[in-house]
Amino acid sequence: MTTSAAVRSYTTPGGTTGHDVFQYLDSKKFFPITRQIECLSGYAAIRKTYLDQEVASTAWATLLISEIIEPIACSHSRNIIALNIATSFINANFSDRLTVELIAKKSGVSVRKLHALFSENLEITPHAYIIKKRLERAMLLLRASDKSLQEIAYLTGHADQSAFTRCMQKNLGLTPAQYRRRNRHTS
Q1: CA 145 to chain centre
Q2: What pTM, to 2 d.p., does this model score?
Q3: Structure confidence by residue, pLDDT tens digits, 98-111
Q4: Domain stop point among 125, 147, 166
Q5: What b/e string do you get for 106-145 counting C-beta neighbours within 10 Å, with b at 16 or more?
Q6: 99, 90 Cβ separation under 8 angstroms
Q7: Residues 6 or more apart whose Cβ sits within 8 Å of residue 175
Q8: Can you give the pLDDT at residue 77?
Q9: Following DSSP, what letter does each residue of 21-70 receive, concatenated?
Q10: Mean pLDDT score, 136-153
């Protein structure tokens, strides 16, 4: 008899068989019945007369916690990686014509998931993050360079000088020319 067969044929003092327990847990989708759980269950059933209760409880608790936490941790890690890819892609390409769809594709997540990642972790939308990065670079160029407003607009991914001016006015309350006059050569 195999280990999992031993567990599945085991009958508890209350009359429930191992098979019934597995079916119940499988039907509730509390956690998937993995090979590791079957093996530990089999070990517990075979060694039930020799197995110290404290050792068994510790083994079960450890296994259950790892089975529950590991997918969450892996999912969290994947999400952080996707967010890092997205922000790095934006930081490297903010002067290009970027769409949220393109950023999501580069990050390996859906548009909806990308929005959720930005909202949960940065408290900002992907589009607002792009604007923020464009404005940060524009402000640096306005302070530290003699480039024309039109050239700065182009270098920071704005369609034209008018769009650049509207963006700064909306987000900072200043036009690019006003910002430059107030912050010239201060880093």
Answers
A1: 37
A2: 0.60
A3: 999 999 999 889 99
A4: 125
A5: bbebeeeebbebbeeeeeeebeebbbebbbebbbebbeee
A6: no
A7: 165, 168, 169
A8: 75
A9: HHHHHHHHTSS---HHHHHHHHHHHHTTTTS-HHHHHHHHHHHHHHHHHH
A10: 95
* Token pair 């998931």: residue: 113
d(CA 138, CA 149): 9
Residue 4's CB: how many other CB atoms inside 10 A?
A: 18
Token pair 């008018």 in the structure block, residue: 162
Task: Check if the beta carbon of residue 139 is closer than 8 Å to that of residue 186.
Answer: no
What's the token pair of residue 72? 């969450």
Residue with the two structure tokens 């567990």: 7
Tokens describing residue 131? 């604007």
Provide the residue range defining the domain that includes 63. 3-71
pLDDT of 15-38, one tens digit each? Answer: 544 455 555 555 555 556 666 666
Read off the pLDDT of residues 73-97 as tens digits, 9 standing for 90 and up.
556 678 888 898 899 999 999 999 9
What is the total count of domains within the chain? 3
Average the pLDDT over 130-146 and give the result: 95
Identify the domain boundary among 53, 71, 89: 71
For the segment 177-181, the average pLDDT, to the nearest whole number, is 94
